[in-house]
Amino acid sequence: QSDSACFDNALELLVMGGYSLAHAMMLLIPEAWSGNDLMDPKRRDFYEYHAALMEPWDGPAAVAFTDGRQIGATLDRNGLRPARYLITDDGLVVMASEMGVLDIPEEKIVKKWRLQPGKMFLIDMEQGRIIDDAELKAALASAHPYREWLEKTQIRLDELPPAVGTMAPDEAVLLDRQQAFGYTQEDLKFLLTPMVVTGQEAVGSMGADNPPAVLSNRSRHLSNYFKQNFAQVTNPPIDPIREEIVMSLVSLIGPRPNLLGLESGGENMRLEVKQPVLTNEDLEKIRQIEDSSGGAFRTCTLDITYPAADGAEGMEGALERLCQAAEQAVLEGYNILILSDRKMDADNLAIPALLATSAVHHHLIRKGLRTESGLVVETGAALEVHHFATLAGYGAEAVNPYLAFETIEAMLPKLPEKLDFREAQKRYIKAVGKGLFKVMSKMGISTYQSYCGAQIFDAVGLSTEFVEKYFTGTATTIEGIGLEEVSEEAVRWHRNAYGDAFIYRKHLDVGGDYAWRVRGEDHVWTPDTIAKLQHAVRGDDFATYEEFARQVNEQSERLLTLRGLMEFKWADEPIPLEEVEPASEIVKRFATGAMSFGSISYEAHSTLARAMNAIGGKSNTGEGGEEPERFNPLPDGSPNPERSAIKQVASGRFGVTTEYLVNADDIQIKMAQGAKPGEGGQLPGHKVNKQIARVRHSTPGVGLISPPPHHDIYSIEDLAQLIHDLKNVNPKARISVKLVSEVGVGTVAAGVSKAHADHVTIAGYDGGTGASPLTSTKHAGSMWEIGLAETHQTLVLNRLRSRICVQVDGGMRTGRDVAIGALLGADEFGFATAPLIAEGCIMMRKCHLNTCPVGVATQDPELRKRFMGKPEHVINYFFFVAEELRRIMAKLGFRTVNEMIGQMDRLDMRKAVDHWKARGLDYSRILTKPEAAPGDAVYNTDEQDHGLDQALDNRLIEQAAPALEKGEAVQIEVDI
């Protein structure tokens, strides 16, 4: 059932259980109280007490409620839904999303106001009056001695007496443990060091071009099979920086009090931690809490290791025993369970902490015992933000990353700045906390309590059977591995640590996940593929391009992408190549990605524009605006060759002016970006020179971060309004909406079509970026193959496909990619990293540092002199891609691209995949061809009706024509 129905059920339960209507609403949708020092102390005590009963139901929501005697409304803590009301002199109250929905004479209105964040408005029909927020909440806050109850029951972890922590092992043991939990040299260099030095999450650039976890030949952390969900269009992400007052990392550990025990407030103890990352000392306090809590809390440590001699086959039995032990411990009265892998050594293998946590969490839910106990995880497997996020999402109320702390202590002498361990540990915990804020806020969630156990993830490459048993309720579109392969990954790491391999005796594995390394993880962009592509485009050499394409496309030896495992069903009778649509027409479907002037240099940006204008394709400004000199016509009246056809409107609105909008062929509303969905664009201050600042209407040297949400788009209706407004500004331009692939994106795309967008872009997670937190680059959003297939299927089934143009982008490199994109439902295709490489990029991944050595992604005047790219290089690349596509089309029997759009039945999963993880993959869901209604086209054929003739702007212009054209006096009278 819907979330609204779930909420209604919860409210009904509380009211029938004895709560007043207003009391129940305050419990379910509380104000942001934890960061508000100005709140009345009694009201604060009320909220603090009730926080242990139930986590907040975050919005955005404006909720009206009634029980027949009282009727009211409240707004959630974020206040992002509009709710305005008026009261008339004869006692009529009207509340709606905006004023003016009913035609009420102004003289009858005695009050106009709006609901504010967390505030409540209540009409008591029996008393015949309106009770305002302050009076209502003051009465409820004074109804019980909440402060007295809190003093009796509340235990704060930081107020407990200190306990002795566990000592760090020597370096030899540390190396073994790091290897057994999959640590790499990259983890220490790119993730841990920046977190310890800056107290911030590590930032990188250029996106992810390595294989998804299920296609990797290497063992991968189990959390890598889960992609973070994020909000787009239907509800907004939150800005965790500017709206920090509504965010909270407070976690309550232990059993839940009786939700319906209104009078028993002083009976159930509660353990509160300010944030969920526990130091070793914190964990020891919890272990010894029975004495300091007078026996109210009893802790049981459950070992999540099992004998290594049992191998991969032993993990299922170990999980069964663990779940039984957890159930028994709760039945025996233990109300805090610590899942610990500290006993992992040469003879004992650790169950992946995420798997153990989720297995216990769901087992206790099935047994009806989950609210009787808290779950704390003591693990060596938690290092980066995504590890903590997945543990939280599957039930961990707090996490002790003991191995990360031991690693930090060992790293201290090598750090660029002299730090003591306490300070380094503090910065790391701060960085994880900030990262968790960002992950939670992507989905519009404000508090850790609401995120804990919420499972806001999609599984990619895990079998339904495995997910249903251990991660119940998680969506999985691509069937894949099960417990056997997950166990094998853990065994391989353990073998690296305690086996005889000489290479691992003194050093960690190189990793190669974030940048290409010899003996590291596979990447699409290697020194060889980059060199081949650049050689091909500079020498106009199609044969060399074919070598490049073969290396990228041929994935029998090294699997890199989901589409690498697809194969074409060739036509029985191929058609002659000369009958296929010419390359000069195909390239008009191509666009370059949204790379802003600022993230890349003027030279790189304008070269892309010149190339795309020359071939009839489109270049995209990105979210940084465009210099007016570039879109104004040349002195002879001809179009400016440096004009970008696609003008982007992002949440920061940098450089967006009326002049900018009217000089566009497409106007793209960026709701999300593939490399970091749910976050705003980021331009470091050292890249903001005077020229960039002028174009963006900002200040030189000041870093620019767009807010995660558009502050005028909190729903699909708001998006429809912006689409309409932009269409009024420039009626000739197509209005596009950029979304990112995730499970459910098809429904959003259908809404976008109904909102009258002309064009929608589905971006894959593996697209490039100029600067992004590494956690987002790797773990947010999914592959475009998943989102594109779902979008096409949903639009066809809802008879919307013909009215909207669908573009796909994110990691498009070759004609084969384009062919698969078309067969899965795309009309147009976006490229970004590949054209950048064609004009000189060598994938140094230094974009965010302003030190690009080839002048592509830098504003440094000296480095920009090294830019050697020419429009001809980019033009050659696109024609090579089109030519490769034509050859595939001929073999498939298609004469035009339109014929092949959406023909999913011409794709199949490659047979006999000989790969220890990929052999279980099943693409049947994304290769299912939807049945179109008779007469419906499955590609874009129609134009949207924007109703511009009804727009007030156009009526005013029409009526004002005599004044505008002849200078005559005009008087216009219209209702507004």
Quick one: CATH class of the largest domain? Alpha Beta
The radius of gyration computed from the alpha-carbon positions, rounded to a whole number of angstroms, is: 29 Å
Low-confidence stretches: none
How many structural domains does the protein architecture include?
3
Stated plainly, the CATH topology of the largest domain is called: TIM Barrel
Q: Indicate the mean pLDDT.
A: 93
Tell me the number of helical segments per DSSP (H or I, 4 or more residues long): 35
Structural class: alpha/beta
User: Could you say what the CATH architecture of the largest domain is?
Assistant: Alpha-Beta Barrel
Please report the distance between the alpha carbons of the first and last residues: 40 Å
Major sheet size, sense and barrel closure: 8 strands, parallel
CATH superfamily of the largest domain: Aldolase class I
- Approximately what portion of the residues adopt beta-strand conformation? 5-15%
Structural write-up:
Its EC number is 1.4.1.13. Residues 615-643 are annotated as: Disordered. Belongs to the glutamate synthase family. Keywords: Oxidoreductase. With 976 residues, the chain is α/β, with parallel strands linked by helices. It folds into three domains: 3-150, no CATH class; 174-201 and 212-256 and 269-504, Aldolase class I (TIM Barrel), CATH 3.20.20.70; 531-909, Aldolase class I (TIM Barrel, Alpha-Beta Barrel). It is 35% helix and 13% strand. It is built from 35 helices and 33 strands. Strand 19 (457-459), helix 16 and strand 20 form a beta-alpha-beta unit.
